[in-house]
């Protein structure tokens, strides 16, 4: 039939490169951009099928390789909820990406369509698939986007809509809004950010307001899309003294010596920053603006080391602020409906942050590395905050809890402390991107909370002191030989290795270490922390020896 002919015809355009084994991995397919045409085309097909499967809801396709080098690119799917592609479809993604001929590809698709009972090309009107495409600033993005479009359109009746250059979280947000029947353009995204930001600014307690001095924040845009979008947003932002560097317009290379991944891993000053910025509040985005970290250059520093405020510290700030609002409400809570606030971290979370959060009385749970795993666990709470140490995270509010808040907001007396607390929570739920972690909305929330508290970045940093830590990657013949528990804190395989790791850990005060296979690179990662940097380094090295 014509569907098969259409697929065969278009797939001839995109032969698979020899000898690359592709895997959807933690966050979509990634690799050298030159080798990705056929993959992107095929994910285009998948996304159209995903839309058909879910009653023609809009699906998102993002072309980005995030913090990886500029010559790389990648592709990932945003489900209609705005979250990551359902893990149930990942094996199919792997299969079609690796199909070696058009025939094999078509037969895999046929089989899958039958199994999933997806109705293609049925003559029912309004039943076609819709896929929204976005890409970051990588030069290879434009031609890859065309490949994705061809993939989408090769499924009969499917439409691909090019939304242009976007941050990853913008696309996720727009897809989510569209499927909720809300206004879903990029402008709507911006408007949502600045209205909820302004609302939170207006709710800052009066006592502080007159002496409120808004100090400058300098943002490192990683020479990617985030800095450009922040420039657009800035037009409508008051109450924020913002300087944006590394927008990519001044000749800098994407992610090279700049950006959240660089700053968080190396803990050194990114390009474009230096002694002139001593003690100033600075923030770094990653290449597609779904990660955010803060830092400052301490006066006493004679090296290029920065004081890093990572995802854990952002999480702690958010948790503290939300808890404060909930406490105000609970005082007044006659029905006794205490809300459940929980936080989700990964094994990489600094031990000092976990101690701090527990000491705040919070429910702390752990998830496997990768946004989809954290997101899932956070969604189990009324308010769930998740962050990876690398700066990816957000706050999820359950639908029921939001309805409860909105109802309370109507009942409570305007101007009362309770009313303000509820209004702040509602504004946070609007400001923060509920689809995925978002550096732009995260930045605005950090900034308004600091103003609310009247805190400097230094004061914020003092919430707790990070334990010294070290990360190493070890190249191994087969990273799949390492199998961990679901929270990645312990290795189940190779047999006996965990006992050996434990024996090393015991030698160090406050020692903690774990190994895990990377989901994005062919390596095993080692993480260690201890009471001194020397001890953390030494623990990491001895654990790495065990892996080799
Ligand atoms: C991906 C993940 C990130 C995770 C990282 C771990 C998403 C959107 N991104 O970048 O959350 O921290 O992989 O990489 O899920 P690794 O498995 O190589 O250590
Ligand atoms: Zn990213």
Automatic annotation (TrEMBL):
Q: Where does Mg(2+) bind?
A: 66, 286, 288, 290
Q: Is Isomerase set as a keyword in this record?
A: yes
Q: How is the cofactor bound?
A: Binds 1 Mg(2+) ion per subunit.
Task: Give the enzyme class.
Answer: isomerase
Q: Which GO terms describe its biological process?
A: carbohydrate metabolic process; UDP-N-acetylglucosamine biosynthetic process
InterPro entries from the entry?
A-D-PHexomutase_a/b/a-I, A-D-PHexomutase_a/b/a-I/II/III, A-D-PHexomutase_C, A-D-PHexomutase_C_sf, AMG1_II, AMG1_III, PAGM
> What does this protein do, in the record's words?
Interconverts GlcNAc-6-P and GlcNAc-1-P.
What is this protein's name? Answer: Phosphoacetylglucosamine mutase
**Native source organism of the sequence:** Eutrema halophilum (Salt cress)
